[in-house]
Amino acid sequence: MAAKSNLKNMVLCLFGTCLFCSAILGGVYALTKEPIDQTNAKILQDAIGQVLLRNADNSGIKEGTEILTDVQTVVVADKTYEYFTQVADGQPVAYAIKSTVTGFGGPLTLMVGISVDRKLILNTSVLSHSETPGLGAKCTSDEKFMSQWKGLDLSKTKLEVQKPNKDGIDAITASTITSKAYTLAVSNALAAFDQINNVEQEVENE
Amino acid sequence: MSKFGLVTKGLVKDNPTFVLLLGMCPTLATTTSAMNGLSMGLATLFVLVLSNMAISALAPAVPDKVHIPVYIVVIATFVTVLQFLMQAFVPDIYATLGLFIPLIVVNCIVLGRAEAFANKNSVFDSALDGLGVGLGFTCSLTVLGAVREILGSLSVFGWKIPGTGDGMLAFVMAPGAFLCLGYLMVLFNKFLAKK
Amino acid sequence: MEILLIIISAIFVNNIVLAQFLGICPYLGVSNKLSTASGMAAAVAFVITLATLVTYLLNQYLLVPNQLEFLQTIAFILVIAALVQMVEIVLKKISPVLYQALGIFLPLITTNCAVLGVAITVTKEVTFGGVTKMLGLGEALIYAFATSLGYGLAMILFAGLREHLALNDVPKAFKGIPIALITVGILAMAFMGFAGIA
């Protein structure tokens, strides 16, 4: 039945198993690395596409525009924001800004689309969250909450969580902390947007 | 025992959750909805079948004194393979189940089957045993997830029961997990006692 | 201040058993009597803190620099298993009294998912009191120790309840684990009240 438990056998067996298993893992890692990277890139691309200017029939990003593939970064208050630019005829028309804040259960990362005239939040999309299922996690499924970010007019709506039917943001029922965090993430993205504009104006002035 | 019996015994008689009380942590933590329970069950099933097969093939060559570490290394290997595959193909589910995927390594069901069955049976029988126990685990998790989802958010597999409002949120949160599992066990005991 | 937040969050708000569902098997298994429960709690506290120290260093100085993070699961579980064995041997040699108290619980701890769970958690960002950040070594150790204090607290409270429960006439179908689970459910509900602190 089982091999004898002498020192040589034990060491050989343990060493062999570890070597063999590490080899398998290294192999599988190499094989799956590319699909994993592709999946992650696709999730990011989808989120960016969702929050920028789209065709009227929602069939993709607006015709005649393209999204610059390079990630750019901007720093506001010691936090680094990644952003992507949508351009038409070489002029930026909208930005997609990645913004992370702390929600109720952990980090909450959003992609926020802002039009270049700073009038509209085009849309928002949750990249990752660890909110409570059934409560804060509704920020990815609650129609009422999500729809108010779509084409939000910054001149009419305050970025503040308020009681329903005021001029602010309606919270998700029983999830005020998540709703506030979500709103903060959007405000932070706006601050990052202002910084992007400042930097570009400086470049133009030079 | 017949080959068919190997597969079905995990469902009721040797049900890992309700009878053997193994693998409690993922059972309680990941069953916030039927879909999550099902995913966790299938993830465990995957590891169980593969580790059972590998261990049954390796067992004759492993000295007794080091068999536990060797088994753990084998199990950890398959768990890591599972992590890669899930990240590549079902990233949503991987993100939802989070920490509990790597923690399959320390799920007593997997090591338990290796010790109790796989190291003294043929590769094929061990695969069937893994399949049976894995299915039993998957069923229990799906049932528990479904009950919590119905009570907690009034929906089934993400489909909202029409004309209903918010459910009893406590059932989606931590206390609901303990309460639901407790009451389901009571029902299970009743059902077994009658038979 | 931050340290205090970590401690309170780890003990009460994110209690390892009642909110994170880690280490349930031994929690249900050895909480019959107050004395065994406190023994187990002490052994867990010891191993979690030690294991976190070793795995944190391993991750920081061996896995991350060599881009071997994908071996994390397998490396951590091996280190924990080896560590538990070593603690057992060392304890037997240098402190027979402590070994008598903790010894029988040590082998059980390898497969206690609380240990691996905490070791993996501190390699990622941790959220406490509205802040999310990577923990330094010192903070990670404090987090690990506070978490195991939370484990002990939940364990000892529960053992006290169960000792009383044993004297009561419980319906047959509820006997044993089912009534225990329902009790933990109610205990978890009480701990949910701490969520307001954070």
Compact description:
The complex is a heterotrimer of chains A (206), B (195) and C (198). Chain B has eight helices and two strands.
Keywords:
heterotrimer; A: 206 residues; alpha+beta; 7-stranded antiparallel β-sheet; two-stranded parallel sheet; 3 helices; 9 strands; 26% strand; extended; B: 195 residues; mainly alpha; two-stranded antiparallel sheet; 8 helices; 2 strands; 66% helix; 2% strand; globular
Overall description:
The complex is a heterotrimer of chains A (206), B (195) and C (198). Chain A is built from three helices and nine strands, in the order H-E-E-E-E-E-E-H-E-E-E-H. Chain A has helices at 7-51, 143-147, 176-205, and strands spanning 65-67, 72-76, 79-88, 91-102, 107-115, 120-128, 152-153, 161-162, 169-170. Chain A is extended. Chain B is an all-alpha fold and 195 residues long. A two-stranded antiparallel ribbon of chain B has the order 1-2. Chain B is globular. The mean pLDDT of chain B is 87. By secondary structure, chain C is mainly alpha-helical. In chain C, 69% of the residues lie in helices and 4% in strands. Chain C contains nine helices and two strands, in the order H-H-H-H-H-H-H-E-E-H-H. Chain C has a two-stranded antiparallel ribbon. Chain C is globular, with a radius of gyration of 18 Å. The model of chain C has no long low-confidence stretch (mean pLDDT 85). Chains in contact: A-B, A-C, B-C.
> Uncertain spans of chain C, ≥5 residues at pLDDT below 50?
none
Strand adjacency order, main sheet of chain C: 1-2
DSSP strand count of chain C: 2
- Helix/strand/pairing class of chain C, anyone? mainly alpha
Q: Report the principal-axis shape of chain C.
A: globular
| Mean pLDDT across all amino acids of chain C | 85
Indicate the radius of gyration of chain B in whole angstroms.
17 Å
- Tell me the strand percentage band of chain B: under 5%
| Low-pLDDT runs of chain B | none
Please trace the helix and strand order of chain C, writing H or E for each element: HHHHHHHEEHH
- Give the largest chain-chain interface (CB within 8 Å): B-C, 42 and 42 residues
Q: Radius of gyration of chain C over alpha carbons?
A: 18 Å
Q: Helicity range of the residues of chain C?
A: 55-70%
Task: Compile the SSE list and pairings.
The complex is a heterotrimer of chains A (206), B (195) and C (198).
Chain A: H1 7-51, E1 65-67, E2 72-76, E3 79-88, E4 91-102, E5 107-115, E6 120-128, H2 143-147, E7 152-153, E8 161-162, E9 169-170, H3 176-205
Parallel strand pairs in A: 8-9
Antiparallel strand pairs in A: 1-3, 2-3, 3-4, 4-5, 5-6, 6-7
Chain B: H1 3-8, H2 24-29, H3 34-58, H4 67-89, H5 91-97, H6 108-116, H7 123-153, E1 155-156, E2 159-160, H8 174-194
Antiparallel strand pairs in B: 1-2
Chain C: H1 2-13, H2 24-29, H3 34-63, H4 72-94, H5 96-102, H6 106-109, H7 113-121, E1 125-128, E2 131-134, H8 137-166, H9 177-192
